[in-house]
Amino acid sequence: MAMVYADGVLRVERVGPPSVVRLAGEVDADNCVHVRSALDAQRTGYAGDVCVDAAFLEFIDVAGVRTLVETAGRMPSGLSVVVRSASVELCDLVSLAGWDGAPGLVLEKAVQR
């Protein structure tokens, strides 16, 4: 596990193998630049889908979702940004923003217990 960014609100880690970007805490307009940086490093440094572990994500705003969508849009043909353990709230926000059909963005819903 490699810490990419951490403050009192958000932790961004690279875990693996296979390499995954884990988001823990809250992603908002103030810190989404750090998420973008980690996703771009993953996108350019790994020849596969960019996987995001959202299991520990407590909150994400529209700026954070836009970061995921924009990264997905820059993926090479046939590759995706795959968000694992996406909460119902995250899936709803993506849908409400009209990004549920965004090319290259795949949301794998969290298992409800």
TrEMBL record:
A Pfam family matched in the record: STAS_2
Span of domain STAS: 20-113
InterPro entries: MlaB-like_STAS, STAS_dom, STAS_dom_sf
Coiled-coil regions, chain positions: none
Alphabetized Gene3D superfamilies for the sequence: STAS domain
Domain of life: Bacteria
Protein name: STAS domain-containing protein
SUPFAM superfamilies (alphabetical): SpoIIaa-like
